[in-house]
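Morning!

This is the sequence you dropped in the shared folder:
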Amino acid sequence: MIKGSCLCGGIRFEIDKAVGPFELCHCRRCRKACGSAFTSGIGIQRADFRLIAGRDLIASYDAPIIRRPPPYRVFFCTRCGSPAPNPEPASEWFEIPAGLLDDDPILKPDKHIFVEHNAPWFEIVDTLPRYDAASIAALRASKT
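The structure's back. Tokens below.
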């Protein structure tokens, strides 16, 4: 069992396991949503996710659509402003902010994505694979 929570602890959840991918996203929207050089998102199965507390504290924001639907959507705690998991994921697989996990998911980050948008003040120095928009789209298409 892997537990997670927001900064104030009002939102609490648990997952049975993380399945990945575990991506570090450098796109502009993710950087703005988290206020850092990149977001860290970890894939989980909807069946493995349970929201324990704080459903009433979760709000969402849909950024304007740039290319095509769906919109860029973020979930957050209305009390502390921390990112939050989607309380009602529509798909079988979805991503949660890895920084919310209180326990070790065992998985480690496996790639950087949208690296063409990397913050000019941040240098990627690890050896993880790096994908730009075209290469991550091709990788994802090959897995469907």
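Headline: The two ends are 28 Å apart (CA to CA).

More detail when I'm at my desk.
O.
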